[in-house]
Amino acid sequence: MQIIGMMQNKKIIVVCGNIASGKSTVCRRIREKGFVVIDLDEITHQIYEQGTDLYYKLIDEFGKEILDENSDIDRKKLSKLVFNSKTLLKKLEELTHTDIILRVVKRIKKEKSDLIFLEISMYLESKNLVDKYINVDEDWVVVADRDIRIQRIIDRNNFDYDTAVTRINSQLDYEKKISEFDEVIVNNTTESDLILKVDELIDREKL
Fold first, then answer.
1. Does an H or E element contain 36, and which?
2. 24 marked as binding residue
3. Is 22 part of any known ligand binding site?
4. Does 166 count as an annotated binding residue?
5. Do residues 124 and 192 share a domain?
6. pTM of the shown model
7. What is the pLDDT of residues 131-148, one digit of tens each?
8. Which residues of the sequence carry a binding annotation for ATP (predicted)?
9. Which range of residues forms the domain containing residue 97?
10. From CA 18, how far away is CA 144, in angstroms rounded?
């Protein structure tokens, strides 16, 4: 089996982080600097579309209550359902992760750039699967203190405290896993500070 990246002389860098860590801001800045970023959340939207195999598998597994008035999968309804149950969340991951990674592989093959960033929300949870298909050269993690992330979720999503905590508790705590990453970007202050850190990291890496 061909491992994408290494065989095509492409450098692959993963950017990951927990909810409300600032990962999306980091990846937006990387795009602004002219680099290719493949967002796995965007690919997830694609595989949820009506008519896909996954669309019907999700309805079979979780019921028609996850659909909106247009019979599209309502990601908010689905998220609310699975984030309250680790068993259901694991089942959702089993159904989606392989399909997502295979679509990422196709995107990487099509890209002409020899440096590609992958924006992955749940990288550690799917790392074995990612490594099976993609040769990752570096992994960067964005972290922020738990209390700060809780407040960001409350402010951004208009969630109550308990809902914000439930979302955070549904994920591995990447802040406790920083020794497993090549680069750690701490985001406990302002967005401008975070952008400065990204610029400094890109300069230091000579990308």
1. strand 36-39
2. yes
3. yes
4. no
5. yes
6. 0.86
7. 999 999 999 999 999 999
8. 20-25
9. 43-112
10. 9
Of 68, 91, 112, which residue is a domain's last?
A: 112
Answer whether residue 6 shows pLDDT above 80.
Answer: no
Count of domains in the chain?
Answer: 2
Three-state DSSP state, 118 = strand
Q: Is 63 annotated as a binding residue?
A: no
Largest distance between two CA atoms of the chain: 50
Average pLDDT, the chain: 92
CB 162 within 8 Å of CB 36? no
Residue 5 maps to a domain: no
Token pair of 154, please?
Answer: 């409350």
Q: Is 20 annotated as a binding residue?
A: yes
Do the Cβ atoms of 141 and 13 come closer than 8 Å?
A: no
44-100 pLDDT, tens per residue? Answer: 889 999 999 999 999 999 999 999 999 999 988 998 899 888 899 889 988 888 889
Give the model confidence (pLDDT) of 12-41 as tens digits. Answer: 999 999 999 999 999 999 999 999 999 999
- CATH number, domain of 175, equals 3.40.50.300
Assigned domain for 3 exists? no
